[in-house]
Amino acid sequence: MKKILFLIVAAIVVVAIPNVKAADNCDNISNFEGLKTALNNSCSTITLSESASIDVTEAIEIGYKVTIVGNGSTIKWTGDTSSQLQPQVNATIITSKNGGDVTISNVTIKDSRKYGLQAHNGGKLTIDNVRIENCKYGAVLVNGGDVTVKSLIMKDNGEKDGGNGIEIGQASADYATPKLTLDGTVTVEGESQTSYVTIAENDKYFTSFEVENTPSSDYKLEIKDNKVIIVNQEGKIIAESNKAPETITDIKGTEYVEPVINTTEEVKDNTKNPNTSDSIYSWISIIAVSIIGLTYTIKKKNFNQ
Asked: How many structural domains is the chain composed of?
């Protein structure tokens, strides 16, 4: 009986140890191998080591729901830097592909051969307190995917004049309609990149896209003259995209409305003397009293005569 009990306990321990190990592989990730292992284990939450520097040598594609907590870490491309990349080659550092629902927070993404982050063909991507720098094609690609931006800072992304921030496109007719949602702020730093949002001009299957905002978003995405604009809390336009190509026939979003400016000048109080602050009405009162007094004096004099 004791032998049977021992075997049962041993079997439980053997089964439990891999599960504990798998759970441990989800936390305190400090290198690329550890990140790949956590993803292969389908960890629902992956926590990177504080201020870790993770060198990525191949594109990361994620097809399930996961939250990556950066803890101030940096994920950068250190693999092949060849400039001869075919369009179909995925060289984005992290891609949420079809079936993926990726939230990434508190991390810096940099030095990609193409884009820093991508939502591809129905993949969902939420960007929260993320910084993207020096990515050759652009910061974020909404390639038939669904991207929500809570807090994003972009710097020195894109080769063309003005750089390239968030690019909305659709590389295949089979892809879902791209969607970009703003739920906070998006910022551009530096001098080489001025672009916030770009509408892809050479995707021949790209015919529609959608932009929207959450009710609590600080900045707003709106549509003006077939461009995507970003409006700050004061209603001021801080950025606008290029004009959508003629192939795009359906743009869903809130149309920008010019704010009503009150041009009526404040009516000045002309009853005040700017130098003495004496009221005209005061002078009128004094004159009136004087006249009354003078009249009374004359009448009294006549009466006495």
From this structure: 2
